[in-house]
């Protein structure tokens, strides 16, 4: 990519997209294009076609997606599969029609089977059933991988698919109903600390409610009070987390230095599993994670692990050897990243 190449980042305001825009800008790229949802509905094929026709981007980074944690994925199953399939199909197809030089599609490691061998290698895709709670979202992301692969093989395009592990970082979603595990944990424990220390005005401000009674009632619905925070599940599942700005650096590295042809052995008769895991290759139990967040925030109450709630997949660690062999490794370790994110959250709120 040239520094003045027109680069369209779909989802440029979200956790993933904003980190990628920041990375591109820091490296001197000056022609970055983005549209908010109000400016461009990516589910509307006609409007997406009009956008590509008018803007003619040379490179596309597809970071737009409907995402969420266990509760959101399991509750809004139809929305997750419908929205993601439409957005992916519209952008990938228009990229082909308008001769985009390279596209990067971002998925998720939830594409791997529920009982996948650990750590998860790219070739474990579609080898056994998925985790039920996020199956619709995972199927949409698998479709995106296969769409990129298929366009490459039939049309000679240069589309790369990357599967980041659990991401966290600036511009994360802290909504207690729809957020992922780490930002939800940070906000719950932060609010519990404020209650514990009787900093009631700060609780009301954080939750944007009118009074303390309303704040306590809302937090109680998520198992939060001044003495205890409820965490879903047993705490035994292990998860891997990657700082979003590290993920962005990996994506830009691949856009600058690698092509689809680098993703498979040309001697293969059947070309599949060309996607790349992006992660640290290091996991942590949910219980250890919660204890770490509690220590960083300074909450003096208790953590309660509710075993009546689902755990999700028990083990979920990526094998990052393919990415390492392509020349990239992460920089930010988890505890350092949590401290950075908590600082960002406090400054934002």
Protein architecture, described:
This is GDP-L-fucose synthetase. Keywords: Isomerase, NADP, Oxidoreductase. Belongs to the NAD(P)-dependent epimerase/dehydratase family. Fucose synthase subfamily. Its EC number is 1.1.1.271. GO terms for molecular function: GDP-L-fucose synthase activity; isomerase activity. Helix 5 links the parallel strand 4 and strand 5 (159-164). The relative contact order is 0.14. This protein starts with 6 loop residues before the first strand and ends with a helix. The model has no long low-confidence stretch (mean pLDDT 95). The protein has a 6-stranded parallel beta sheet, sandwiched between helices. Helix 1 crosses helix 9, helix 4 packs parallel to helix 5 and helix 6 (181-196) crosses helix 10. It is an alpha/beta fold and 349 residues long. It has a domain at 7-171 and 241-281 and 317-332: NAD(P)-binding Rossmann-like Domain (Rossmann fold, 3-Layer(aba) Sandwich), CATH 3.40.50. The protein has helices spanning 15-26, 45-55, 70-75, 77-97, 135-155, 181-196, 200-207, 212-220, 244-257, 286-297, 321-325, 334-348; strands spanning 7-10, 32-33, 59-62, 102-106, 159-164, 166-168, 228-232, 238-243, 276-278, 283-285, 302-306, 315-316. It has 12 helices and 12 strands.
